[in-house]
Amino acid sequence: MADTSIFAGNLHRRNVLRLLMAGAGSAVTLAACSSTSDSGTAATTTASAAPVALASAAPVAVADEQPVTTPRQAIDRLMRGNVRFVSGQMRHPHLSPDYRAQLAKGQHPFAQVLTCADSRVAPEFVFDQGLGDLFVERNAGNIAEPVVVGSMQYAVHELKVPLILVLGHQKCGAVTAAVEAVENNSQPTGTDLDAIINAIRPAVEKVKHSGGDIVDKAVRQHVADMVAKLRAKPVLQPAIRAGALQVIGGRYTLDSGKVDIIVQ
């Protein structure tokens, strides 16, 4: 790839692309977060929606898992799976040929997860779930763009999925890129990478003077912003008001594998 400048300043295309692949590096570049700290202030939480009944496929591989009928049950099931993942006690449910054959007749995921494209943040592994369990949307920086919202609308209205989790993560490369763009007062790149930086920039602007680990604070703020954006979407509001849908936010720690709910 040519070493052409994409930002006014010291940002280059190759570094941004490496960053968006979230590769870990030893230097403070766009390929990794400038801090290895796991600190930061959690985003402000808001009240959750009331639960509502939902039909779900009966579990096959995990006998003690009950069918999910409420948003609260969906959260609990996700977090139980994350506990197994953190402890190394994964069950790897719902991967058998028989279960796969059942899913060919139709899907009944119990939760949606909007998360980063980072290869280290795979929801089915992080929450120890299997085929047909999660409806997943992924892009660099877990951005609620129109195509993502359209996908969510389909899952809510057609599949009756009761939960949306926006999941940010520690050392997010896309957020780091936005932080560096703001700090360096960088100009637009003229490429599609601008869409990523511009979507995360508002979160960075809110926390840039707060001190401490700005990247991690921006990760948390961006999750809160995306949750608020989704809750305000007219296509999702009826389900939220009816208690059929809850939208929450979480943060995944790469070091430990643990997910914390930071926006409820």
Give the arrangement of secondary structure elements.
Layout: H1 13-20, H2 71-87, H3 97-103, E1 111-115, H4 123-126, E2 134-138, H5 146-157, E3 163-169, H6 173-183, H7 193-207, H8 214-231, H9 237-241, E4 246-252, E5 259-263
Parallel strand pairs: 1-2, 1-3, 3-4
Antiparallel strand pairs: 4-5
Order of helices and strands: HHHEHEHEHHHHEE
Query: Average pLDDT, to the nearest integer?
Result: 82
Examine the coordinates and then state which fold CATH places here, giving the name of the CATH topology. Beta-carbonic Anhydrase, Chain A
Shape summary: globular
CATH superfamily: Carbonic anhydrase
Q: What distance lies between the first and last C-alpha atoms, to the nearest angstrom?
A: 43 Å
Low-confidence stretches: 1-61
CATH architecture: 3-Layer(aba) Sandwich
How many strands appear in the DSSP assignment? 5
Overall tally of structural domains: 1
Features:
11% strand, 5 strands, 37% helix, 264 residues, Beta-carbonic Anhydrase, Chain A, globular, alpha/beta, 5-stranded mixed beta sheet, single chain, disordered N terminus
What does this structure look like?
The protein has helices at 13-20, 71-87, 97-103, 123-126, 146-157, 173-183, 193-207, 214-231, 237-241, and strands spanning 111-115, 134-138, 163-169, 246-252, 259-263. Strands 2-1-3-4-5 form a 5-stranded mixed beta sheet. Helix 1 (13-20) packs antiparallel against helix 6 and helix 7 packs across helix 8. The chain has a single domain (50-263), classed as Beta-carbonic Anhydrase, Chain A, CATH 3.40.1050.10. It has 264 residues and is an alpha/beta fold. 45% of the residues are buried. The protein contains 9 helices and 5 strands, in the order H-H-H-E-H-E-H-E-H-H-H-H-E-E.
